[in-house]
User: Which sequence fits this backbone?
């Protein structure tokens, strides 16, 4: 009787969870089973974020079309359309001007142009920051269905608020005509201030859009902070009311300096070097932080919205 020879031991199958050298599938299919390589390098992330910015510029006309459609849909069926905002701003300026001019012992000619500029500019800033929190989440269907640069959705929010600001400029012009005010040549200093605002608007939209797409608790916090900033920033009260002893503290408020580089020239006052320095530093910090966060989270935004 012949002895039964045991079968040759079968070679152990490779574990799919353990990658072969080079991260390749040990079964020979050439696909990656488990990628243990580190996340993309910072340089690659920055390059992709820059490419997204360039793509946003290429599709700028699409962003303008999106913004215009948003305005039309918001006021569809309305008689005055977006000029309802102009009317409400004019009524608020008239009511608050009459009350606070009396409380602060100022004449309407002195106080009302300041209040009008402050409220119109602050409404733009406040609305922009609030809507920046949802610039990606409200475009969820578009982001998932269409391959577009994410910057297009940030530009959409910025341009939409610029259109609203353009309607409210009518109130400023009306007040200037009524009180026969002309700021003079110093008003040209508003141009670098507006350029600074344009860069900051896109940076804050990219920053808050990415951050709020991941953490949905942030928009209410941002709304509360903007309400606090409204009262601690010279908007309804003039800067000199804090007194000479505390006037030096104002440049430490970035909302004040960013507001003043646009408001001051339109009131015929050149912003001081301290105001400009604070505004430029705050803008630089905002741009760097916004671009860094956008570059780091850009690949995940489509999964978060």
Assistant:
């Amino acid at each position: 009787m012949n002895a039964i020879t045991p079968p040759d031991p079968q070679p152990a199958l490779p574990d799919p969870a353990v990658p072969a050298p080079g991260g390749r599938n040990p079964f020979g299919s050439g696909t990656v089973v488990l990628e243990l390589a580190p996340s993309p390098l910072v340089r690659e992330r920055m390059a992709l974020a820059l490419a997204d910015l360039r793509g946003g510029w290429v599709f700028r006309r699409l962003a303008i079309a999106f913004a215009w459609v948003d305005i039309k849909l918001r006021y569809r069926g309305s008689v005055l359309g977006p000029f309802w905002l102009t009317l409400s701003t004019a009524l608020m300026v008239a009511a608050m001007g009459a009350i606070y001019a009396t409380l602060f012992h100022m004449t309407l000619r002195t106080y009302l142009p300041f209040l009008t500029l402050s409220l119109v500019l602050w409404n733009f800033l406040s609305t922009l920051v609030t809507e920046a929190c949802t610039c990606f989440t409200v475009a969820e269907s578009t982001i998932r269905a269409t391959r577009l640069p994410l910057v297009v959705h940030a530009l959409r929010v910025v341009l939409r608020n610029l259109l609203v600001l353009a309607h409210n400029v009518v109130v400023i012009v009306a007040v200037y005509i009524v009180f026969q005010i002309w700021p003079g040549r110093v008003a040209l200093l508003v141009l670098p201030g507006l350029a600074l605002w344009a860069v900051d608007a896109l940076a804050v939209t990219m920053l808050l859009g990415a951050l709020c797409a991941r953490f949905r608790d942030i928009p209410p916090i941002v709304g509360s902070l903007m309400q606090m900033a409204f009262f601690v920033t010279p908007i309804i009260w003039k800067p000199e009311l804090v007194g000479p002893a505390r006037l030096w503290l104002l440049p430490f408020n970035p909302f004040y300096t960013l507001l003043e580089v646009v408001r001051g020239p339109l009131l015929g006052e050149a912003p001081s070097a301290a105001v400009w320095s604070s505004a430029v530093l705050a803008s630089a910090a905002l741009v760097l932080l916004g671009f860094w966060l956008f570059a780091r989270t850009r690949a995940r935004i489509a999964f978060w919205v």
